[in-house]
Amino acid sequence: MREKPVMVLYVEDNYDNRVLIRRVLEAEGYEMCEASTANRAFEQLEAHDPDIILMDINMPEMDGYTLTAKIKEIPKYKELPVIAVTANVMRGDKERSLKAGCDGYIQKPIDIDLLTEQIERFRRKRISN
Predict the structure, then answer these.
(1) Three-class DSSP category at 45
(2) Cβ-count burial of 113 within 10 angstroms (0-12 exposed, 13-18 middle, 19+ buried)?
(3) What's the pTM?
């Protein structure tokens, strides 16, 4: 029996970034759902039950740090891998992402050749825990 495709929720306010990542991941066999705001992210969580979240950090209304912390407060999402995706590369940004509850950190611009490898690494880590 074939394994069901991995569902990725990409929370990103930039439309062009969402299109690029959707094209890359769907070409690799992933299923995608997207959100451009925190409220939409919660709707997508409930509707699609994703296996992993790619979380933009710099978003209007509610930043990715706050949104990640709120998601991780919900018991059924506590173990859901969240990977910060951000152009913030100053000293301390990675640590701040991890402190907010992110399980990993991918710098922008995203290296699309490494993206699926990084997603699989975090997903396998969740499965093995």
Answers:
(1) helix
(2) exposed
(3) 0.89
What is the per-residue pLDDT across 38-60, written as a single tens digit (0 to 9) for each? Answer: 999 999 999 999 999 999 988 88
Alpha-carbon span 49 to 15, nearest angstrom: 22
Q: Which residues contact 111 (CB under 8 A, 6 or more apart)?
A: none
pLDDT band at 126 (very low <50, low <70, confident <90, very high): low
| Residue 28 per-residue DSSP state | T
CATH superfamily of 7-128: Response regulator (3.40.50.2300)
Bridge partner residues of 55 (DSSP): 11, 84
**pLDDT of res. 90:** 66
Q: Where are the domains of the chain?
A: 7-128
